[in-house]
Design brief:
Strand content: 5-15%
Number of helices: 14
Distance between the termini: 64 Å
Helix content: 40-55%
Order of helices and strands: HHEHHEEHEHHHHHHHHH
Largest sheet: 4 strands, mixed
Length: 325
């Protein structure tokens, strides 16, 4: 039954129980069940034992802050439910249950169970889930570094926004997961999750790998390297200034050294952001393309348009071999 037109007046003169009783509003039958439960450390420990495997990494400072509130009597019942899905997995309240254990107190919580599994991906309470956490929850393991790399690789060269901004909302999770999955073998082979340094460089290495794997017929290469070796050499030279894999560096690699020098100069320049803006992104992609072909350059310049083939239309590279990785 719809609410009356003078809704505000109606609610001020009636309570929720009478609204339900008169069918002014109706409860909805759902499979989920809900109750307010006092959770003690023993029950919290059990709930943590059924915590799903791909939950986010625990933030110890966040747990300590909540535990301190619990010990001080400042913790109150909130609308953020402890959620258990239909597979009997704890899908929300990981940090709060750890705080109950740490504080050794008993606290009231709103508890929901028999929750659909897909709900875990949409939960956004407490410490907000980041994109890589939501994608990991959905079944595709991803680190924050890998998530940044793939979004920068997807980024449209001519747009003002960077990839982490262009693809920054929950509605983009599926598309980011899709393109990561198409090239995750290469990401794992180059150990992207452990890499330090600019995500731009790794994104450029991925574009080199995709271009050489699927579109080599469009280019002339002044080197005899494989797609994987060339991509990894690019990362080595830009980040370290030398090859970690014993490759001889010649004039066909001079572009990567020039890019390394540009990065160092930008870092020393207090007026600019350290290799994290769109200008730096475009220079990285432009020089990466010249490095890919082995072009010998005198001066550093960037292309007006993306020199690489559209990454979003490229086939998967997961069928490729990484014997030399």
């Amino acid at each position: 039954m719809p609410l009356p037109s003078d809704c505000s007046q109606h609610f001020t003169t009636m309570n929720l129980a009478s609204l339900l009783e008169t069918h002014t509003i109706d409860s909805i039958d759902r499979k989920e069940k809900i109750a307010i439960i006092n959770i003690n450390p023993e029950l919290a420990d059990y709930l943590l034992s059924i915590n799903f495997e791909d939950n986010r990494t625990l933030s110890v400072p966040h747990v300590k802050r909540m535990a301190a509130d619990m010990k001080s009597g400042l913790w109150i019942l909130s609308n953020d439910a402890v959620c258990i899905d239909v597979s009997n997995r704890l899908i929300n309240a990981n940090h709060r249950m750890n705080a109950v254990k740490l504080s050794q107190t008993t606290q009231p919580f709103l508890v929901m169970w028999d929750v659909p599994e897909a709900t875990a991906q949409q939960l956004d309470v407490g410490r907000k889930r980041t994109m890589h956490e939501r994608i990991t929850i959905s079944g595709t393991r991803m680190t924050v570094k890998e998530c940044a790399i793939i979004r920068h690789t997807m980024n449209e060269y001519s747009k003002a926004a960077l990839g982490t901004i262009e693809y920054s909302f929950a509605r983009h999770d599926r598309v980011v997961e899709k393109y990561y999955s198409l090239h995750c073998d290469f990401m794992k082979a180059m150990n992207a999750k452990q890499m330090t340094g600019s995500a731009f460089i790794k994104a450029a290495a991925l574009k080199i790998y995709v271009e050489m794997t699927h579109y080599s017929f469009r280019h002339v290469f002044n080197h005899g390297m494989s797609a994987f070796d060339r991509s990894m050499l690019f990362i080595d030279l830009v980040e370290n200034g030398y090859s970690n894999h014993g490759f001889t560096v010649s004039e066909t690699e001079i572009s990567s050294i020039k890019l390394r020098n540009m990065k160092a100069k930008k870092k020393a320049d207090a007026r600019g952001n350290y290799w994290s803006d769109k200008d730096a992104f475009q220079y990285t992609m432009s020089i990466a393309f010249k490095f890919m072909t082995g072009e010998i350059i005198e001066n550093v310049s960037k292309y007006k348009k993306d020199p690489f083939t559209n990454f979003l239309s490229a086939p998967t590279t997961n069928t490729q071999s990484f014997e030399n990785a």
